[in-house]
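Assemble and predict.
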Amino acid sequence: RKPRGESRLSRSHRTAHTDPDYSTAYVVVHTDSGLQGFGFTFTLGKGTEIVVCAVRALAGLVVGKSLQEIVSDFRGFYRLLSSDGQMRWLGPEKGVIHLATAAVLNAVWDLWARAEAFPSFRLTLPDSGSDPKQIVSCVDFRYITDALTEEEALDILVKAQEGKQQREDQMLKEGYPAYTTSCAWIGYSDEQLKQLCTDALKSGWTKFKVKVGADLEDDTRRCRLIRQMIGPDKTLMIDANQRWDVSEAIGWVSSLAEFKPLWIEEPTCPDDILGHAAISKALAPLGIGVATGEQCQNRVMFKQFLQASALQFVQIDSCRLGSVNENLAVLLMAHKFKVPVCPHAGGVGLCELVQHLILFDYICVSGSLSNRMCEYVDHLHEHFTSPVVIHDAHYMPPKDPGYSCEMLESSVKKHQYPEGDVWKQHKNN
Amino acid sequence: RKPRGESRLSRSHRTAHTDPDYSTAYVVVHTDSGLQGFGFTFTLGKGTEIVVCAVRALAGLVVGKSLQEIVSDFRGFYRLLSSDGQMRWLGPEKGVIHLATAAVLNAVWDLWARAEAFPSFRLTLPDSGSDPKQIVSCVDFRYITDALTEEEALDILVKAQEGKQQREDQMLKEGYPAYTTSCAWIGYSDEQLKQLCTDALKSGWTKFKVKVGADLEDDTRRCRLIRQMIGPDKTLMIDANQRWDVSEAIGWVSSLAEFKPLWIEEPTCPDDILGHAAISKALAPLGIGVATGEQCQNRVMFKQFLQASALQFVQIDSCRLGSVNENLAVLLMAHKFKVPVCPHAGGVGLCELVQHLILFDYICVSGSLSNRMCEYVDHLHEHFTSPVVIHDAHYMPPKDPGYSCEMLESSVKKHQYPEGDVWKQHKNN
């Protein structure tokens, strides 16, 4: 079991993150039987080597353990990685050390699902060998029992067994609803926006996200354009990528209210629970919700966002939280607080991973599609051995065993830093 | 300007952090003139190499800049380091990347103070070349303007000019009040507790902190013992190092209320603002305050702790927040919210650094000693070129130019990982 180093794949456009160079810290766990598990965490480029360094530091806690030993006390194993007596000082459960924990645990979940020959979303289904008790035993309830106890979690899962089979059948047939972020990045010309939006409408997309926050006049023009293109009945969301302070966020978004956005995403600092609560309260009369989560560091922060009514849409991330284990805690808390989960995706492979989590949420936790949808960004899927399948703006459930984390050997080789061909060429230019 | 690698110095006793191996990521910035600045961030051992890796990643943003260029726009430089378009994904402003930022900025503050030939606490004093405007220009107000604007900060500093000279004279004569954590670590025998407490009383200590949280019966016996030793009028504080969930914290601390602790420190997860608020509310009728901060990741979290009345004592840390720059923001917010600052110290060199901040707080911000004291732990000072001077349980203001960050060349050489003698011996045993 060893980290594989970093891999840099592509470029795209963001507001707070102005020059991303989409990368991952990619982990492969090896077993004596020859079975492998793949995992990663997503980064924006520079600093990926820090995450890789953290993965190497965590490796000592993983190497030598059997899969059975890990999954028979998955909560204990999560705690071992996230609460090491010395390394927890570097977090706890946040930033680099938690991103590395996510990469390692993602690989373990991938390995487990492969060993059981199920896609991850089915691994956690009761009829696939697991039961609600086993699911709950993967979750560390430390620091969240004031919002959700183990007993309450178990109760939610047991109740949701009713109708589970129909929901699974429905998903296999129809897929999980998605929205697209690929049409309206900042920096696209109006012509590009129009063309991308026209194409997306033709492909059946009904929910569109627009990046905002750089310039109000520009935002107004672009939101008006998109709203005109999609008509009054389709869904528009806006995303500021942490651009504003609290009062600025309220003012700016109020100015865009005429375009009827469903939510404003990341209006301010991802750590600012009370700030998001103030923004939520101010925008509620305008019918605009607050969405956040892609940089929410752990379940303790999500707990407070829910307690404080600071968000109306929970955007879990498959690579920032501590893998499936911690995401289960958030799905269960969101259900208790009656707030819909609309995962963050995009980056490198985030769509591939998070589809498992949101399918599990629908089938085994929430049982609802109301106000729910999963982000989709149309890039970098070509590097994966089991890329997402989108049909009519829906994620079609993955069929291959595993957590869909594995990248093509050729992609890894080509993009591995610093010895891959892409980097050698970059150096020569 | 280059990172110097890690240095592991000693061992001590904690509750959540069960086996610390006190270390630092030590940074030296070199200038063309030959002047050097020293800085570090404290760690508990394993994972120090991750922080060193992050320091190396940040180095590219520092090397080649002149000191004048940095300090003439210190806010901009802080933002450059803390909000790099790619690396901020690894935080932002939290965990490994922020610890590394602290180490680098501490070295820059040390360099600046040496260049000006003042100890750091005086560098920020108006009569030493700086004025309130210059102090405020070091602070990044991003994400905190809903709690404190630049104008309000300036107003606080201008008002505090009155009586500044007397307060500085008073500090030079009497020093800043301290409390000791060296008497009652978990794991000490009752005999050890008695002996250490007797010695401390003889040396003039009047404020004592006891570590709790492992076993209630044991805590009760030890708190009773210490309270009996020190009498009813001296101050007792208790520290749980994040042991509990919210309701457990309330129950446990209520059981210890008879020993009249001034505060309970770190009752639960350092991220749990609302949890600390609930604990504060429950313990207020018992006359027990809540103290936290040594693992509070940034000014945005401190802002919310203050907004939510979630703490009654602000424990700033010189190596977790983004150096003097971010600590200034917290001192100013704490003053506005009328909450006393009682810095965290101990570890490696935290006493050496934080004394500058708390002296500045008294002289230039709060002007008050009411309910205020600075932690003191009696170890590892022998490794510093300008170790703290404690006289009659007070920190005597440092006189040497700089931020007191420099370690003895011989200590660095001996403890540097992995080539120092200490590590070679360790390997051979």
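The mean pLDDT of chain B is 93.
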